[in-house]
Amino acid sequence: MSAVVVIGSGFAGLWAALGAARRLDELAVPAGAVDITVVSTQPFHDIRVRNYEADLAPCRIPLADVLDPAGVAHVAAEVTAIDTTARTIATSDGATYDYDRLVLASGSRVVKPAVPGLREFAFDVDTYAGALALGDHLRGLADGPPTEAAGTVVVVGAGLTGIEVACELPDRLRRLFAGSGVAPRVVLLDRSRIGSDVGASARPVIEEALSANGVQALAGVGVAAIDEGGVSLTSGEHLSAATVVWCAGMRASPLTEQLPVQRDGLGRVRVDDYLRVIGVPAVFAAGDVAAARMDDDHLSVMSCQHGRPMGRYAGYNVISDLFGEPLLRLRIPWYVTVLDLGPAGAVYTEGWDRVVVSSGAAAKDTKRTINTQRIYPPLTGDRADLLAAAAPQLQSRP
Predict the structure, then answer these.
(1) What strand order describes the sheet that includes 34-40?
(2) Class of 2-110+250-333 in CATH
(3) pLDDT grade, residue 199 (50/70/90)?
(4) Are 40 and 74 in contact, with CB atoms under 8 Å apart?
(5) What was the pLDDT predicted at 35?
């Protein structure tokens, strides 16, 4: 019996597992000849990109609902070590698992530098648990003394996530503090410029949306320290706020450090056109841990847009590699960004220069379709539906 282990159950990990199950079916591999096991810390597939929203009820899917019908096993444990020589992984509960082929798809996490008070006093929306904690905190403030600081949120980091969080918060705070006399205030700050990575074409749309939503933007200033009373800025100013949300940068899972290869500035490992980790036999990588070439000029970005097809192709290829079958080369010839701007709508761009194609209500409809339909696995519990969705095919533009 052979063993395929997938580390991670996010967008890349889930689809790698289902893609592998589909490829076994295509090759008519007898049942029981290959075990596929997903190892991840939680028994859920989280729709992580929706963590900025107020209602998280639709954002967590039990893995049993999508893996069991496909015949994929799941182990809820934290992977602590990868031994590429022995071809084993170790978990925090002391268990060891052998693999014949491994797919590393353990994702990324928000960067938390050594800013005094950051870990003690700031919130984030990096995980489902983190987003829930932020929601509980805000509701607690609304039930407490009606102070100006209680209704003030500082969002640190004005990249894609920070902008979405900041645009969502004013309306959310207004509902929470309705009738209290507290005027909600949201401040979005960045040590660079607001939306520096969203493209020149989209920046005016985003600036207009921030203004329409009542978000105060501070550019060119960093955070010196955070305490329970607010944020001290590198400019010397102190912002009184009961809530700080940290959205300043992402880095690949530290499990990439277990592989004997160099990593890029984001902590990612290099993979070839077939998602094989270059220089490490029997190991594939997909999603935020992998730097994969999307075309002749661009590498993948940390996004579900790239993580999902990378997972599907990795799943197909890991089984093909196991049985000596031809592998599929991954190339994604288009790139889009759809950024939620709260009540101001959304902005939809195409191309690596992020040229605006639509904005406002039209873009919001596209974003809503992506968030509630396009990025979800089939929830029918039907094996055929799940394996069909795992085909190594590229979706068209949204």
Answers:
(1) 73-76, 34-40, 2-7, 101-104, 283-285
(2) alpha beta
(3) confident
(4) yes
(5) 98
